[in-house]
Every structure is written in structure tokens, then in C-alpha cells.
Amino acid sequence: MLEARALCLQHPARLDDVSATLRPGELSVILGPNGAGKSTLLHLLGGATRPLSGAVWLDGKPLAALSAAQLARQRALVEQQPARPAGMAVDTLLTIGVAEHSPAARQQAIDYTCIHDLLHRDCASLSGGELARVHLARALHQLLSSDSAPRYLLLDEPTAALDIGAANLQLASLRQIARQHQLGMVAVLHDVNLAVQHADRVLLLKAGRAVASGSADDTLQLPLLQALYDTPLRELRDDNGRRAFIAG
Amino acid sequence: MTTRSWLLLLASLTGLASVISLLAGHDVASSVAALLQLPGHDPLQRMLLLELRLPRIVSAAAAGALLACAGLAIQARFHNDLAEPGLIGISGGGALAAALALAAAWPAQLVSVAAFAGATLALLAIQTLAHGRAAAKLLLAGVAVNALCGSLLTLLITTLPDGGLRNVTFWLMGSFAGASATQAALLLTAAGVIACLLWRQAAFLQALQLGDRAAFYGGFDVGREGWRTVLLATLACGLVVAQCGMVGFIGLMAPHILRRLIGLQLRPLLLLTPLAGALLAVLADLIASQALYPAELPVGVITSLAGAPFFLYLLARQRGAHA
Q1: Structural domains present in chain B
Q2: What confidence tens digit (pLDDT) does each residue in B1-55 have?
Q3: Following CA atoms B244, B246, B247, B250 in sequence, which dihedral angle do they give, to the nearest 10 degrees?
Q4: Average confidence (pLDDT) over B175-197
Q5: Which of B232, B246, B231, B227 is closest to B97 using CA atoms?
Q6: Mean pLDDT calculated for residue range B183-191
Q7: Are A129 and A96 in contact (CB under 8 A)?
Q8: Which residues, if any, are the signal sequence (chain B) (predicted)?
Q9: Which end of chain B has less Cβ packing within 10 Å, N or C?
């Protein structure tokens, strides 16, 4: 399990006593308005940022007790604006962070992200969407080639560069990968409706505080979301009972 | 062209330049006779070739390789293509410390250690001043540290009574003339070792291309590995400065010329950069020794004459890219 226990931080964003439990095999979503500290929380969970107080525990050990190499076998992170290293072939990028070469894991990562045609391209020549897929493939390769457990994939706005259809497919496939490989997926999202459709668990973050956390059904409720975004929202339901939220 | 062909080409060119440099100013037949100890050869010429020319050329090649490695390492670590050991003050710090050690009559072995320490101190100062990785700040801090070290060095040399200390021009502009066989062997061994150690950093340096944080997520202890890279660079630079003075711009030119020729892929660059540096240094030394023969120019004059405009060109291109 990946657990945040009473995390506090002042910089780069304020976080106040944030706790959360993230389980393997599930897609957890962090939602919140701009500047709530979502990305910062993600980097705390990843270990790149150290909390002022509190700690993140991975499988019963505090992150600070694990080396960078040990951590890399158990968690990977895809940044919101991933690097575009000029002169590096996609093929080469895929190997970064992979400790043990595993052709099967590499192939799975390529298949999941459909980057077969991009392997020989220079990273500098990729479009925003292609680059996002390539970095997702790299992170998947890093985790799938490791035999450690539990493993976590942290994603900072994985759908930011994608259109509505691609974003939907992306999250559906991430959730499926999470189930199939018992990966814990943690995604920062801006789109409430993507969370409604795909999230198993949700953490609502506002001004550095966890407003609510729990199952998607419990947390994605109109009053909570209106308070979260300080915006009047309306909830729509179709005949199958599927819900969506719109502003206004 | 494959990396292997480039390797062969650069090695042959360096070999060719070295042979030309070895035989320059002498008639080829008599030089060959002297080298092969054919009957009737001139023993003085043989001594000149083997004990003066050869160590000088080997020193130049090894120093060039070391400086080029240092340049590439610093550029990769600080995500800054314009960084160069000479420009950011590492060489200046090394030269000042080496001169101080010489002035204090330290034994020769310790002079290199002092140069390494000086280079590292200068780097620490620059890093503290520049506060991270902003490209312009790093260079500006380097300019300040460079100016300070240069003037302290000049002050030191001019105030000391004429003695064991070499002259200001040697330190500020560098020279491979007068290199001994021991120096050549030291530099050559160091070049081999440092190039290999840097090659072993390849995976880290490649991950670093995605940024410091991404490299950490990829399993690298960025602080520790980063220091290892930087220490290799300062070690390379300190050694060269202690033995040959400050030879500028090779650390900038060698990796950049290679990038234009073979592309931006890191591993081939790591492999070929030492050779490119060696070639540039041997050529620069050849020009420095032959251009105004029998007078000799400091080799730094040649590398700076070529390197400074090259730097300005890179700067202009960078600005164009950012506009």
C-alpha cells in the first residue's frame, strides 16, 4: 500500500495534514481546483519532494528509507509536461529507468500505448499527444519490467494533451492495466467527468487540505464538488443512471 | 555514417595530425631515419623527436580529450550547452590553486591535487552563486569567478620573486611545450580512466536529459551521481590546468562540432568526444608551434581565436531558437 500520513508542506505548494491510502489494482484520482496542491501531492507520493512533517509509506516503509533505485522498481511517474529530449530516439527513451531488461514488458508497454510507429522517431519531432504516450510507455516499461510488489504509477494530468475520445480511452485502458497487473494508478485530473467514469477512489483536495477521500461514488457528490470548486454545478443523469456534472 | 566509422575517422585524423606535428619543420626522410635508427641518422634529431616532440603531442592529445570530456560532462549535468570548464571558471580556480601550490613549493604530485581542489572550489562557488541551473546565471557567475581567479593569479605571479613559478602567459593561455614524458603518461592515463568512468555514467546522463526530477524517478540518486559527474569533470580540468595551463574552449568546441556532425545522441557523443578533443588540441598545438616559427604562440591563443567566435555563434543561435 502507498500511504500518505499527515503530510504538511509549505513550498512549492501548501499542504496541510493530508492523508490518503492508495491500493494496488485501483485507479485513484486526485481532483481539485487550480493551485490546490495536486501535483505537489503527487510528487510527495513519488518521493521527489520531501514533506515538512508527516511521511509517505510504501509497503510499510517510509519513502525516505528507500534508495532512488529501490523506489524506481516500485513506482514510476509521468510528469505533466514531460521532457522532449532532442536527439533521443523513442526507443532509447523507453529504456530510461528500466533496471532489468525485459522484452516482454517492453512489448506490453508499447502495445498498451500504441507507439509501434514512433519507436524510431526523434523525441523532438513528436506531437504533444505522441510525447505523452511515449512517456506513459516508458513509465509502464519501468514498472512492468520490475518484479517488485506493490507497484504504483503516478500520473500528473495524463489526459491534458488528449482530445475527449482519446482521454476516455486512455483512462479506460489505464484502469484495465491497473487491474490486470495489480498496479496502483494515481492520476491528477481536471475533468470531473473522467473521474466519474473511471475512478475507483477519489481524493478531493482544496487549498492544500483533503476535503474528502473515499470511493468514487461517495466523494463525487454534487454538494462536495460545488464546495470543492466554489462553483454552482448541475448533475445530469442518463437513462442508464450514468452521471455527469456541468458548470452553471 | 555509423559511430564506428566516425571513431575510425577521428582516430585516423588525430593520428595524421600527430604525425604531421611530429615531423613539422623537419625533412621527412631524415626524421624517419632518426626514428627508425637507420644508419647515418642524427641522434640529436632522434632525441628531439622522442623526448620533446612526442611527449608534447601526447600531452596535447590527452589534455584535449580530458577538456572535451569535462566540457561534455558539465554541459550534460547543468543542462547548459554553453557551459565550458574555462568559461564557468573551473579552469581559473584550478590554475590559481596550482600556482599557489607551486609558489608554496609543493611537490609536483600535489600541484595536480591542488588544481583539482581549486577547480572544485570554483565550481562550488559558481553553483552557489548561480543557484541551480539557469543558463545565463551559471555563465555570469563563471565570468566573475574567472575574472577573480585571473587577477589573483596575475597578482600572485607579479608579486612573487622570479622563481619556480611559470609565467602568467603559461597559466592564462596554456602551453604543451616542454611537456615531459612523465606528464604525457600521466595525462594519457587520466584521459583513459576519466573517459571510461564518464562512459559508465552514460545511463545517468541519458536519464538527466529528461530533467533532474525525471532522472530521480528513473532510479538515479541525482545528487550523488551528479556530483560524481561533476567531480570527474573538475578532476579532468584540474589535471590539465596543473600540467598545461588554461587552454580554453576545447571543452566547448569538441562536443558541439560533434553534435553538428553526428547528432545529439548521448552515447555516441560520450564515445567520440575525447577523440574530437584530442584532434582539436593537437591541431591547435601544431598551429601554435608552427604559425610564427621559430617563435611560439601560447596554444590558448589559437583555441580562443577559434573558440570565442564559435561561442558567439552558439549564443546567437540559442537566442534565435528562443525568440
Answers
A1: 55-322 (1.10.3470.10)
A2: 889 999 999 999 999 999 999 988 778 888 888 888 888 888 888 888 899 999 9
A3: 120
A4: 94
A5: B246
A6: 95
A7: no
A8: none
A9: C
Q: Which three cell numbers stand for residue B107?
A: 611537490
What per-residue confidence (pLDDT) applies to B323?
Answer: 40
pLDDT of residue B164: 56
Rounded-to-integer distance, Cα B173 and Cα B164, Å: 18
Spell out a b/e string for A184-195, using b for 16 or more CB atoms within 10 Å of the CB, else e: bbbbbbebbbbb
Label residue B203 exposed, middle or buried (CB < 10 Å: 0-12, 13-18, 19+).
buried
The torsion region of residue A134 among left (phi > 0), alpha (psi -120 to 50) and beta comes to alpha
All residues of chain B having their beta carbon less than 8 Å from the beta carbon of residue A82 are: 210, 214
Which three three-digit cell numbers place residue B62? 590527452
Chain A residues in contact with chain B using a Cβ-Cβ cutoff of 8 Å: 43, 46-48, 67-69, 71-73, 75-77, 79, 82-83, 85-89, 92-93, 96-97, 99, 142
pLDDT in tens, A94-123: 999 998 889 999 999 999 999 999 999 999
Query: Strand, coil or helix: what is B134?
Result: coil
Helix (H, G, I), strand (E, B) or coil at B131: coil
Q: Where would I find the beta strands (DSSP E) of chain B?
A: none
Q: Find residue A4's DSSP bridge partners.
A: A20, A56
Q: Domains, chain A, ranges and CATH?
A: 2-247 (3.40.50.300)
Which of helix, strand or coil describes residue A166?
A: helix
Instruction: Report yes or no: B52 at the A interface, CB cutoff 8 Å.
Output: no
pTM metric for this prediction: 0.90
Indicate whether B320 pLDDT > 70.
no
